[in-house]
UniProtKB/TrEMBL annotation:
Organismal lineage: Bacteria, Bacillati, Actinomycetota, Actinomycetes, Micrococcales
Name of the protein in its database record: PD-(D/E)XK motif protein
Top-level taxonomic group: Bacteria
Source species: Arthrobacter humicola
Database matches in InterPro entries: DUF4420 (IPR025534)
Amino acid sequence: MTANQYSFESIWNVVHSLAVQGLAELYMHTLGPTIEAGPLMAAANPAGEFTVLVPLLGDEGFADQLGGAAIRLERTLVEGRSYASVTCVDSDLNDVFIIFVRDLVRRLPSSGPCAGVLTDHVDHWRELFAQTKSSGFLTLPQVAGLLAELLTLERILSRDPARGLAVWSGPFKSQHDFRVSGHALEVKASLAREGNRTKISGVEQLKEPEDGTLHLSLFKFLLAPEGDSLPKAIRRIKALNIDPLEFELLLLRAGYRAGFEDVYGAYALSISTEHTFDVTEPAFPRIVPGKFVQAQVPDGVEQISYVIDLAGQLNASLSQPQLDAVYMCLAEGTPHA
């Protein structure tokens, strides 16, 4: 079962418009996909709440879940038919809810009961709704950091015929932003006009994979009206024929919400300089567990972050052919589990 993102959005726009006019109960819309019990339905109310109705089989058990600040799950009767009703109770998260529904459509089985799958899906998404609600807008430094990752992802995907997004591990706050078996790449961004400093979060961030390679890219950006932006980079990546829903889920985990595209489009950045380094070179400045006595962080030290100055490393940065080889390794490798 598949459904187009934009048809979902247009359906709810229509239904919400009717709801505001007090006509929603008469004009609920089907979402397109059909399970054994019938078609899924979209509805809205004058308060701006979006709802998806999943039809239930006659003997299908289902328990209400009314708790949660963003989403409500309950049994609903519509014209004598029993549905599992999933409602986004915070209209500010309607753009996230539409991605939730698209993800749900992929997971619901076409035959048999669906209540268990639906309940598990809601439980899985509750944390993501809460995280999205609390994160707010990305700051300008966060925008720069995400843009650097997207530019890197675009280069890797352009070399990967399979267009595999699993190489991008940054949205999951992993040790490295990009990783496949044997190879890893960490991406940093700076808005500073002077210097080549960047912050390192923890002693594991610049530790290479076992028997593998690790590189670090530093993008320096300047604000520029003609520059690149998150929405532009996202559109280019989608044009590479990647899985759009998987990509949107990754963006959501990275803190980006498509509903704020106009806001993020105003942050236009151009690359002033860009350098990539082999972190495993002896002269590269880093703190890793091997630097400590017995190759482990001293007892009682729970967190270490530090700043490295790469000014003395610029002459050792990778040439373009060397950088192309790094991208090819990431494009051709098997994603790290």
